[in-house]
């Protein structure tokens, strides 16, 4: 009866059984996860990891058995089986057991023996040494790591450099890629280098010096922001920009890039000669690798001692001398501001050797100092400001000059208007008046246009008394000055006489004395009057008084008198007399007793001078009848008016009245009577004389007499009415017949009109359906129009009547100034092909990035502005617009630069043309219609380019012809860009012999696979195939070749060989015949045993054959690389002796970094009796230093080595180790320790 199951070690009341199972399984998963992590990450010591996990798994299995968890508690046999499976699994994971499946099998970790694990567990009973170990026969390894391409580029961004002064220095950047720099070498060629007179200096800079330069540069750039406010000279802008660019370049570096700087304080051309990294490997230096450092261009005005203030007319032309230094030819930007109007100028080609045609090819010249005159015109008065803005030397070094507070780069000139002096409101013909007991003020003007900068002005004045005044006054001369900025000078005088201006001058300029330069001052007497009164008696009584006056003084005179009626208050009245004699009639309109008395008199000089005992008169007044016309004295009647003239008459006296008037015509007169007029203002109608009414003309209407109610009839003496009767209709005509104006510019068509304005003129433009009307106010007015064409006046009417148009002058034509146009010059058009279907001129093709131009003939008024579209074919089949630039020309024939920067079809379309009449700034919307635009196009041919489609390494056998092995493979395919046929120049470099051969081929296809049957590989090792040059049908120079895609590697292997490790009569160990295979696996080995032929495929070396029967063993052939490189093998013999040994890197671990294209030397030290045969392999290097090598990449066997040291060169990365060694008699390792034999 079986025993009952034992209860779990942990009581279920503490932890239930399902939870125990969960915890146990979770612990299993955790351990396996940690184990997998160790297998993926840790590769340093796989033996220790295997030991650790075997012990952990054993302990877990034992502990799980002791816990007695239900469903996880197994019998002892099952537990042993579990332990066995886990141990085998650990051995597989950590390399204790390794299965070889050919060269592609994983060998990341070094294999180790199972006894390495069981030894410590068996207390030494099953130690690895007891069964044999590798001992020290094969020691050392050489690891080559491939560093990326190391490059060094001088001045990567193409900046220009210059030194402002000899004590300054510049930092020239060197861009490093994948380079840990150790040494930098450069040369310095002086400017204007002459081999007979100069020498080239060479310099070497260590990495320590470069780091010191970088540290000082960083220290200078950090406080740059805080120093912005400090004063700087005019060249600071140049250096700030350079520092900013350097900082920007540093911030944009990629991870593999670094930047160092060469500090240079001398002038010359810097050429980068060599850059070595920490492995003493030369970095590649792209061409060009030089930069020229010259003195910074400098320009300033030469100090001038002449004053900056000049007078108008003094120096109309002036030369401002400029001192300019730099490498010619130089260009200078400057501008001037004349009276707040700025103009910018550029002067190019400043050189002292303009006539020397050799200067263009003489290289970089030395700095030259030139004195250049800047001719300026000072014709107009005002403020002249000249500033030097920017100077550029031949290398493109640009120095922007500051015009703020800089006396060397700016000049300011003031051209003053000359002052003038003359008397105002006084002269010989208009003397100044001097009143008795007062002063007269004379005003002297210095001119309203005189410059305030010239103030104050000094005026020299002379006085000369009249002959009658010489006793009381004496002549004198004085110099008077204006106050501040006042342009007028007031002089108070109290003596009569002549005052003369002698001269005038300002602070800078001598002025002119203008007329009137003499002022006569006369003393004026008081006015007086002689008055005589007379009574006026008419009809039945006195109607008023009259006074005869003789006036003394300066006319005009104003006489004041008082009029008092009865007891009413007196009224003061005044009468003005323009002459010294006058008559005054006073006839009051109302009856009464009046008193008249004169009181005061005024003339031009004195006001209200009292008349002593002014005469007076008293009189009883009875007013008479009177009549007068109302309104203007001249009347005009148009042709549209009637035959009656209406008039209004004002009547005075006592009504009713009888009025008599007379109509005076051109041939006679007629009297008319109007009786019983009762109103103070009456309207009467006068018939127009028949002749005047019919033909037009003038007639007068006179008032003859008026009779009041008292039958007192008196003649009326009032101005007559003059009437002009016009019976002529208005007319209209054009003045002239044509005018030429700008297109769409508003212009006036001059019109001549007759009649009474305003006029209304109707006109029409030829071709228009509508009729236009214009309102004109002047007889010489104009009709405003915009469009061109023929205009015709249709109707005219003035303010009164319609008129007629003068047929001979009824039309006027408006011409437009033609817009500017452009066409190809005759030479260019003859060289181009014209396509009529689209109107385009097809120019001759040109190569990419070559200079090209055409000549355009322009019509219009220079200067011209040409705006054009430039487009190019796009990848989608259409066209894309590249830009819409504008260029200027002052000549009717101009040179048009073509764009050749990118290949393809480039189209040009002239969109707008402006000239002096139609500038583009004012005619932005005036676009040339598409059908009229100038079109031309050009094919820009691509520069030929060739590159390999893939960079995969190719493999060939020794003595093979360089022909394709696989027609479908893309390896060795060269792709061409350009126009076929192509001519390709290849170079084949054998690194084993350092021999270089050049091959040239021609093909009409866009791709070509390397097929060179005439070339055979004569030695093993890497071969580099490089595309040296390529040409196509366009004849264009080739584009720069990419060094990465223009080369490919070819590995040439030796002929397959088999070398025995032992022979039947001489065995070193055992009776197994083993052979070392040379070449690249897999191998196909043919052999015969006792005359029977066998053939086997071996994937690994060595190849073993067990001799099971006596007889002759003979290897007939061997091939490798998929049965390639087949070789016939002869008889093999050997003898057993001491085991040989080999060391790589003298038994140490050697690590070496190389760049692509470079080679590393692997040294093998051989111990034994030569000749030697040894096998080495290349494996993937470990990701970290000291780790185990990874996957085996290739295996090679070298035989017949008679020296104890052997070296190979390789351009590939990996870890080289020796796997076996044979000397004259024996080999190591022994056959038992190798892989199982693959033979019989």
Automatic annotation (TrEMBL):
Where would I find the Nucleoporin POM152 N-terminal transmembrane domain in this sequence?
16-97
Gene Ontology cellular-component terms for this entry are: nuclear pore transmembrane ring
Please provide the Gene Ontology terms (biological process) for this protein: nuclear pore organization; protein import into nucleus
Q: What does the record give under GO molecular function?
A: structural constituent of nuclear pore
Q: Which InterPro entries match?
A: Ig-like_POM152, Ig-like_POM152_1st, Ig-like_POM152_9th, Ig_POM152, Pom152, TMD_POM152
Limits of the Nucleoporin POM152 ninth Ig-like domain: 1057-1128
Nucleoporin POM152 first Ig-like domain spans which residues? Answer: 151-293
Q: List, for all copies, the residue spans of the domain called Nucleoporin POM152 Ig-like.
A: 419-519, 729-811
- Domain called Nucleoporin POM152 immunoglobulin-like: residue spans: 524-623, 848-925
What protein is this chain from? Nucleoporin Pom152
